[in-house]
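Here is the promised in-class demo. Please do not try to memorize the tokens; focus on the logic of going from shape to residues.
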């Protein structure tokens, strides 16, 4: 396991990036008035290292950008260990421990084979998250819900990768989950989505969000301006 958070600081972003078989999984922490919030939890294979990292914070809430097991794989464990409340979109409730409830489609032709593999392997028992019950269920209109818990941040609906995908805008950072990615070490469009149309609408929304950094679910935080160039090129490709 390779941890990058101690060797590659990015702005003032608190992050943990565990790499399994060359694939990075990123988790983040934002600070509130009296406690901290963990954004995503990665797969169970990074649990030991993630557990050590979160130990330096006072985690009161666990915000899941979506309910795929590479994001909620440690949610049940950390809920038990820390007593932290799990926050999840209502539209992703069916995904908990059940990847197959929202089938993936390729966002571009070159990702068709990868998407087939996701749909096949995603339903296997070894890739299922431990079952948990969200303590706080987010509706699409609940954009200011985090402020009630002492966090100066807004929820940003980013449906597409999953039907309930959410982001958080905190300061100059948009924590966007898998609405966009840096999985290959550079800004890129996420390879697959439950709704490609909704994902396109969400990345168009990202273009209008004033931020300096995009903190994605896979890879190190990336410069927002560079990411927006990639988004613009993708949209032009679809609508020449």
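The designed amino acids, position by position:
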């Amino acid at each position: 396991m390779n941890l990058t958070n101690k060797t590659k600081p990015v702005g003032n972003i608190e992050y943990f990036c565990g790499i399994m078989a060359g694939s990075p999984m990123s988790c983040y922490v934002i600070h509130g008035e009296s406690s901290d919030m963990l954004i995503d939890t990665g797969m169970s294979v990074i649990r030991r290292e993630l557990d050590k990292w979160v130990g330096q914070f006072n985690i009161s809430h666990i915000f899941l950008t979506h309910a795929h097991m590479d994001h909620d794989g440690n949610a049940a464990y950390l809920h038990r260990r820390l007593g932290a409340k799990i926050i999840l979109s209502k539209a992703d409730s069916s995904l908990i421990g059940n990847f197959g409830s929202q089938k993936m489609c390729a966002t571009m032709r070159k990702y068709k084979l990868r998407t087939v593999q996701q749909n096949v392997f995603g339903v296997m028992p070894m890739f299922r998250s431990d079952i948990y019950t969200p303590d706080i269920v987010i509706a699409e209109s609940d954009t200011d819900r985090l402020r009630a818990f002492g966090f100066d941040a807004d929820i940003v609906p980013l449906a597409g990768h999953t039907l309930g995908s959410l982001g958080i805008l905190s300061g100059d950072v948009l924590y966007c989950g898998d609405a966009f990615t840096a999985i290959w070490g550079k800004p890129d469009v996420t390879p697959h989505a439950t709704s490609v149309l909704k994902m396109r609408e969400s990345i168009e929304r990202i273009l209008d969000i004033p931020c300096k950094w995009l903190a994605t679910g896979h890879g190190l935080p990336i410069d927002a301006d560079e990411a927006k160039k990639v988004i613009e090129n993708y949209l032009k490709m679809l609508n020449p």
